[in-house]
Amino acid sequence: MPAAGAGVRLGPGAPKALRLLGGEPLLVHAVRRAAAAPSVRMIVVAAPPADVDAVHALLAPVAPVTVVAGGAERQDSVAAALAVVPDDVGIVLVHDAARCLAPAELFEQVAATVRDGAGAVIPALPVTDTIKEVDPGERVLGTVDRSVLRAVQTPQGFSAPLLRAAHAAAADSHTDDAGMVEKLGHRVVCVPGSDFALKITRPIDLAVATHLLTLPPPA
Question: How far apart are the C-alpha atoms of 201 and 99, rounded to whole Å?
């Protein structure tokens, strides 16, 4: 669980994963939901390097966790967390702490799909907005067919050897781990995502997440 980002777009304050949602840090919400998934046996959090001890103390009452120092980029944090996952773990889920309300059922669905033979699995939702391609001058070049587009979420699931190989081969920066697997030429499978797995990036996302806390959990 990469959780070392500063969260600049969320405004000034603590690192994003430690910002409060309903009186608790985003990271606490994320770990609680991950730990509720029966398939999850180990949780590794990549925290801001200066906050490793504090994050471990914060999460200890929530669930057993291993906390490592994260890196400058998300990819570095995932690699640092992956490095402490034992070799006998066959399936690894990578989940952004910023998607702190992703339900336990989504973790289970992703894990089950990997268990059934898929090497890489991502939850995704259909794109509902009209999408335009534009040039550097903001001139519209065309309208993209949204029927073939998906908005990708986490947790993303992988066979552990495939994820390790993808990280070992990565020469460029990627915004998600599935992108690294795609670069290797491996198939990535989509499963239905969840509206609760929104990514908290801007203040309005925090407001939406605050409202979602008042709703019953998804069935």
Answer: 9
Instruction: Quote the CA–CA distance of 138 and 7 in Å, as a whole number.
Output: 26
Residue 197 CA to chain centroid, in angstroms?
9
Angle at the Cα of 201 from the Cα atoms of 107 and 70, rounded to 5 degrees: 70
- Tell me what pLDDT residue 219 has: 65
Give dist(CA 163, CA 143) in Å, integer: 34
3-state secondary structure the chain: CECCCCCHHHCCCCCHHHCEECCEEHHHHHHHHHHCCCCCCCCEEEECHHHHHHHHHHHCCCCCCEEEECCCCHHHHHHHHHCCCCCCCCEEEECCCCCCCCCHHHHHHHHHHHHCCCCEEEEEEECCCCEEEECCCCCEEEEECHHHCEEECCCEEEEHHHHHHHHHHCCCCCCCHHHHHHHCCCCCEEEECCHHHCCCCCHHHHHHHHHHCCCCCCC
The whole-number mean pLDDT for each consecutive block of 10 residues of the chain, a chain of 219 residues, reads 78 78 95 97 95 96 96 92 96 96 97 97 96 96 96 97 94 88 95 96 93 84
> Exposure pattern of 125-148 as b/e (b: 16+ CB <10 Å)?
beeeeeeeeeeeeeeeeeeeeeee
pTM above 0.85, yes or no: yes
User: Which residue shows structure tokens 């906050």?
Assistant: 51
Give the span between the Cα atoms of 35 and 117, in whole angstroms: 23
